[in-house]
């Protein structure tokens, strides 16, 4: 029996589900128009086929003064409950543009205190080093 405090039920039900998290070697910048929302050289790249890979940026590298916490939330059986933020400089198109797993399942602790952004709501520039 799994004795971890917060195990992911999805991993127990589907051992074939493969999610990888790797450090991104380079810089990631998130913008709304000309306004920089986040800039990091410590981003992590989460791959979860068949979905497109996603950058997770440390909270310390995100300008939360340009965000507003949203009421929207979702649940992933592999990562946990996601909270959302709207990107204020993006206006209506920035609604719920960033999400984060503040209390992820034990298998996903590498993305705790990291936020990810929808590519259709902001511009994400990744420059490999």
UniProtKB/TrEMBL annotation:
<dbReference type="InterPro" id="IPR038694">
    <property type="entry name" value="DUF427_sf"/>
</dbReference>
<feature type="domain" description="DUF427">
    <location>
        <begin position="28"/>
        <end position="119"/>
    </location>
</feature>
<protein>
    <recommendedName>
        <fullName>DUF427 domain-containing protein</fullName>
    </recommendedName>
</protein>
<dbReference type="InterPro" id="IPR007361">
    <property type="entry name" value="DUF427"/>
</dbReference>
<dbReference type="Pfam" id="PF04248">
    <property type="entry name" value="NTP_transf_9"/>
</dbReference>
């Amino acid at each position: 029996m799994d004795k971890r405090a917060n195990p992911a039920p999805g991993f127990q039900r589907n051992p074939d589900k493969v999610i990888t998290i790797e450090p991104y070697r380079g810089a990631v910048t998130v913008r709304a128009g000309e306004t920089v929302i986040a800039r990091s050289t410590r981003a992590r790249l989460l791959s979860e086929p068949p979905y497109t890979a996603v950058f997770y940026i440390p909270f310390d590298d995100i300008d939360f003064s340009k965000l507003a916490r949203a009421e929207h939330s979702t649940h992933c059986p592999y990562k946990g409950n996601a909270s959302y933020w709207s990107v204020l400089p993006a206006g209506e198109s920035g609604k719920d543009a960033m999400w984060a797993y503040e209390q992820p399942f034990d298998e996903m602790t590498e993305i705790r205190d990291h936020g990810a952004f929808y590519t259709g709501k902001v511009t994400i520039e990744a420059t490999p080093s």
